[in-house]
Amino acid sequence: MTSDRWLLYGAYGYTGELIAREAVDRGLDPILAGRNREKVDRLAADLDCESRVFSLADPGLEGHLDDVNLVLNCAGPFVDTHEPLVAACLDSDTHYLDVTGEIEVFESIRENDDRARRADLTLLPGVGFDVVPSDCLAAHLVERLPEAESLAIGYQPAGGFSPGTLKTAIAGLGEDALVRRDGGLEPATVGQTTREIDFGDGPVPAMTVPLGDVSTAYHTTGVPNIECYLAVPPGATRWLRYQRYLDPILALGPVQTLLAKLVDRLIEGPDAETRAETTATLWGEVSNGDATRVSRLRTPNVYRTTKLAALEVVERVLAGDAPAGHQTPASAFGPELILSIEGVERIDEWHR
Ligand SMILES: NC(=O)c1ccc[n+]([C@@H]2O[C@H](COP(=O)([O-])OP(=O)(O)OC[C@H]3O[C@@H](n4cnc5c(N)ncnc54)[C@H](OP(=O)(O)O)[C@@H]3O)[C@@H](O)[C@H]2O)c1
């Protein structure tokens, strides 16, 4: 399949709709899809797009993809949606992209690498804010220090989160965090390690969190030890570490359902003004024991970056520029991919 027909699944969610609107503005002509007929039809009518309604539980899912070259999956939590869509893409000769940041989803999709290579198809999860900037930062740092033994990535986002991001985080509550140690994935506790990170305006407290880079940055760079940090308000690290005592309760299905309902009722996601005015900063450090290199990225707001990065990758894959098999953003397009996103700046620091 070599046409430029592509399908956006989860099109009427917060993130899907942002991407759909931008795609139409660029003349990229997506087919809008999802499981709720009323919501799909309303958006498709508003944007004058072709639409398709199907559930991921439909038998014969691949039949909905027979005439498309690429699927961008924006229906998360992706732990619930990636398996049927990846299988349907492989069965229908269709490239697969998504905007997941979930470690287990990256690892699961990677298991299809051989099959995708043989079929000359690209499987590229994580084309949003998770993990395009961080993956490109990791690849850039390893170009600066090729023999790096450890990598730390720090995140300082601003502007709040969408309902889906919070619901995906809720679905992971009560589970072990994961870190990359000596090339393997090991369980760890959220906030197990804390440190101060200078995101550009002086040191702030940060703590370890389970983000996708422990999977993707390893596959991009081969660095065997990887930790991800999130900047937190002063004093919060102590309280967040106590969360583990609540883990058995937070892992209960009814508790997660209640929290997700509260999110649906109370959270709308950042509005257009917030998305336009807020930024995010990423900090990365590689070390080989003797030498250290630090670089930072300043990006637009998380959801603006997601929209712009996802469409940049859609255009490149449709143009035939992506290698086959399971890819990360930087394994497919190199560390400079992030610099093609409007509003991104990269700064390098030199250490010994
Ligand atoms: N990588 C990144 O940086 C990044 C950025 C933004 C968002 N995300 C992730 O993207 C996902 C969506 O976020 P959002 O804010 O757009 O959430 P949202 O507004 O809640 O939208 C979620 C969308 O997914 C659909 N969906 C969920 N589960 C489904 C299932 N099992 N089968 C079919 N459709 C399903 C929903 O349809 P229904 O309404 O019918 O349930 C809805 O269209 C989240 O997992 C979020 O973490 C990642």
From TrEMBL:
Pfam families listed in its UniProt record: Sacchrp_dh_NADP
Sequence ranges assigned to domain Saccharopine dehydrogenase NADP binding in this UniProt record: 7-123
Name this polypeptide is given: Saccharopine dehydrogenase
